[in-house]
Amino acid sequence: MPSRRGRSIIARQTGEESRDPGSDDDVELQSIPLRHRAGQTDVDDVTRQIGEMELVLARFQRMNPLTFNGAESGLIAEGWLEHMEELFDVIEYSPERRLKLVVLQLREHAQCWWKGTSRVMRETGALISWESFCAAFRKEYCEALSSQLSSTLV
Known about the structure:
The protein has helices spanning about 5-15, 25-60, 75-90, 95-105, 110-125, 130-154. By secondary structure, the protein is mostly helical. The longest helix has about 40 residues, at about 25-60. This is Retrotransposon gag domain-containing protein. It comes from Dorcoceras hygrometricum.
């Protein structure tokens, strides 16, 4: 009969496991999951976050949020943003989540506009937040409405 060490080497080479319960080899195997436990926790956290975001997206989509393509009038643009804010208020989403979700509703010109605007904001070190999105959106799409209303009132 080969020595125990010889059996372990053979078992490793052939992929067979032939250990005596309670042997040093069992202690070594028990420590492997402990070495990977932190990595597994990270994987579990990411999996949980992905599952949570899928639920958030599904809930958001069930509310039938409007899309915005950027060709609409200033009045429609303001109405779209107010509609989005009302949805987010009802479902009580954080400002960070609001930003992520509202960007998903941009199409065509509006999507290109936000990609360019957010890139410039990152490059200049400006904070990209829900509030900065709303301000930039209103400046881009609703300022013409403000000008029209001002000239009508004068």
